[in-house]
Amino acid sequence: MSYTFQEIQEAIQAQFGNEVVVSENIALQQPQLTLTKESVKDVCLFLRDDARFFFDQLSCLTALDNGPAKNTLEVIYHLYSIPFNLSFIVKVETERGDGKEQLPEIPSVAGVWRTADWHEREAFDMYGIKFSGHPDLRRILLPADWEGYPLRKDYTEQEYYHGIKVAY
After folding, report:
1. Can you give the pTM of this predicted structure?
2. In which domain, by residue range, is 137 found?
């Protein structure tokens, strides 16, 4: 049986209460459910383990910077159920922090889907989002001593890196 976006949302709210859902956007071609960041790991476990849905694959986890004016970052999770050919998107929104000492923190889902390990490391590397409980959260694309997070909208590249001019 294939479930609708609304039926999956209702199952989440029945399991966790209405307070875990921040908002929904069903006007998009792929509807999205925004969750509280505190609930994302538990909801993802539920969506993976519930026999009605069995979202056994995290197809993609990506981040988005809404800019300094809105002062938020988003993490978007594209879930897929192979046996039911069912897709579902959840996302979490968090404050940006200062991008230096204060970085946003979201619970890791690497224990739910192993593929999240790489995706969360990439989001950390590019956006400075910490994933609490991640087994190996360190830079994956940039050197460990790189300054800043290049996909943030307020990122300013360093002029030199180990004596090498960075800008072309």
Report:
1. 0.93
2. 5-165
